[in-house]
Specification:
mainly alpha, 6 helices, about 65% helix, about 0% strand, elongated
Amino acid sequence: MTDAANPFAAWMSQMQDMAKAMNPALESFTPTGFEKLWPTMPPEVVEQFMGKGVSPEGLDAKTKMLLTLAGLTVLGAQAEAQIRMTVRQATAQGATKQEIAETIGLMGLFGGLPAMNKAMELANDVLKETE
């Protein structure tokens, strides 16, 4: 997309130049680890608003967190921060390492091995932090 006739490329280049001029430090900014600023919600709150509190006959919050992790795994590398946050929240809801690994492993069938491997790597990093 470096073609000068491409209006999107021209717009992106203009916005990048403007960002560099306004704050040169943004050139090396990375959002990796930024999600640590958001704390994990208490399990009771998550259960009340995402689990049995909303739907007494439905899925509990831990199961919903594992389903969320499954969907994010299929999305692949574009959801790194969300995967890390969901793993933290799933463990707070009582999900075991085995349940997290199985959830991610099953998604290798749908999202492919690279997406599964990346999600497993991210999950392992989070789980090491909590040990």
